[in-house]
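Follow-up to my earlier ticket, as requested here are the two runs.
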Amino acid sequence: MADTKSGRDEQARDEERRRMQRDISEARERGDEPDPTADPPTECHRRGCSEPVAFSVTERYQEETGAGAVEATAFLCVDHTAEESPANVEDAYEDYVFHVEPVAAVGGD
């Protein structure tokens, strides 16, 4: 079979598809791993806000660069949590996640 530009392009697309499938599989496997147990911050993640943390907000989505799944978590006060909504819905995929969880009060209150 002759080496043609269209053949090389097809091979490149196939390799990219395989890489993306591999990245997704690896991300799924890592999703089962427990996160390192670190104490959450005590103040809201938003700049200029010193209110106590009340919730963690997590979103998992596909990175625009094609680098695979990205998971971002922010620890927010009550007011800033109320302002949150999914920001990457257009990049939603099978394992897309957006969830809000309460954080235990600092000092065990």
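Run two:
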Amino acid sequence: MPSEEQNRRGGNVAKGHDVLIVVTAEEQYMVENSSAYQGFVPQENGTGFYFIKEI
């Protein structure tokens, strides 16, 4: 069962360092239950994250 919020690390190639973002349980649920295999999830603070599901 996922925690309420989970920290995810993503590479930021343009700036050459890692970026720490928070993925909420709601966002994780939305991605896991989506029929899309890849996509972008915008977040309220103006950032967002790309996802690719492994088959």
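The only thing I checked on run two: The first strand starts at residue 5 and ends at 12. Let me know what else you need.
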